[in-house]
Amino acid sequence: MVNKFNQTVKPTRLIMKEIKDKTEDKILDAAHEVFLRKGMDGARMQEIADEAGINKALLHYYFRSKEKLFEAIFATVLKKAFPNILKFLASDLTLEQKVDLFIESYIDLLQKNPYLPMFILKEINRNPESLADIIRSKVEDPEQLFETIGNELRKNDIFEVDPRHLLVNIIALSVFPFAARPLVQQVMFGNDKKAYQQFLSERKQVVKQFIHRSISKP
Amino acid sequence: MVNKFNQTVKPTRLIMKEIKDKTEDKILDAAHEVFLRKGMDGARMQEIADEAGINKALLHYYFRSKEKLFEAIFATVLKKAFPNILKFLASDLTLEQKVDLFIESYIDLLQKNPYLPMFILKEINRNPESLADIIRSKVEDPEQLFETIGNELRKNDIFEVDPRHLLVNIIALSVFPFAARPLVQQVMFGNDKKAYQQFLSERKQVVKQFIHRSISKP
DNA sequence: GTCTATATGGCGATAGAC
DNA sequence: GTCTATCGCCATATAGAC
């Protein structure tokens, strides 16, 4: 689109929309950053505004309240944090490969989002109802899921394992070193960041091996 | 001590002291209760006062600030949460027995204090410096601890295992189902409290078996 | 030591100019 | 849409009577 001075212009609505999106995105990015580190209770609207390079009033203009802004962040984060397990099960890989793939991609995710575990743990304990959405949208039928995992397990010559305990084990082993970072880093490695990172990078291999040894028959 | 009417009485100072202790203990109990559920950020001095059956002003009379009161609670809780691992190693039990004993007593502790994991995780992430004390007083020399565990492991004909990873694994498997209670209970058991409790009571056995299979050679 | 009343500050939220 | 200024509340903390 070109005006009478031959300058390219865009329809006003589009310009508005782009500006809006830009600001809204800046807010969402900033809120994501702050909420993930501090959680709902610890975060301050002022800090989010600073991080986004705007002021508090604008936050309320785009999202009516802190609670609403938080919910927007929580919903997207929660989706990311619940990998679709059925997707892993559907492929025609061996059980061992499926488990490896799941562990590897999950720890990958956590290394890119180290604050994710505590963010979710804090919120689901603060407000357990916040889980209801995800249950409906993502894990539609848990009963069915564990049934499927159970069937997959029985196809293999391994120890009898409760699917729920197995899943909890895999997630626990993956998540804990991130959630307990200060503990692991300070107490186990004398606050040596490098040593802690090294520990994390060994983790994928360790968890995979650990899980397989725990279910494989001699 | 007897007065002129032959009634037993106590010196005023002692009476004062007892009253003081009673109130102080009531405060500590109440603070323990509230802080463990809500954490430093989520707790309210009013709620602690109500729980103790006194008013807010008294809290500040006994402990100067919320922060100081919290520190008092955190210190005692942290001590409880760090079992003396060397104690378990010192006995002349087999490795398997030592591991079993540790897991069993630790999960026992968590069942009696289900809020303990999240309380500690939240606080060490909010204020990592809070760990410094415990490091000095309890886990004096981590290097030494893992050296000792490593030696113990090498005495047995098992897979080569990094003591740090093994310890993290044991704690992760024990702690996670408590820290992630809403997740496990709602998502895995359709919010069936009984089923979740049943799951927890199976946990000791599961974790023990899991650990042993993962380190035992065929 | 314990209470009521109040000061003080911070934070979420809104009003209103531009 | 964005800003400055301000309201109103709530939580920690203190003053002061008893």
Features:
globular, homodimer, DNA-binding, 76% helix, 218 residues, disordered N terminus, 12 helices, mainly alpha
Gist of the model:
The structure is a homodimer of 218-residue chains. Chain A has 218 residues and is mainly alpha-helical.
Share of residues in helices of chain A: over 70%
What's the alpha carbon Rg of chain A, rounded to whole Å? 22 Å
Global geometry of chain A? globular
Multimerization status: homodimer
Mean pLDDT of chain A equals 91
Q: How big a fraction of the residues of chain A is strand?
A: under 5%
> In DSSP terms, counting alpha (H) and pi (I) runs of 4 or more, how many helices of chain A?
12
Quickly give the structural class of chain A.
mainly alpha
Got a strand count of chain A? Answer: 0
Pair of chains with the largest interface and how many residues each contributes: A-B, 54 and 53 residues
- Secondary-structure element pattern of chain A, one letter each: HHHHHHHHHHHH
Distance between the termini of chain A: 72 Å
Largest sheet of chain A: none
In terms of per-residue confidence, which ranges of chain A show pLDDT below 50 for 5 or more consecutive residues? 1-15
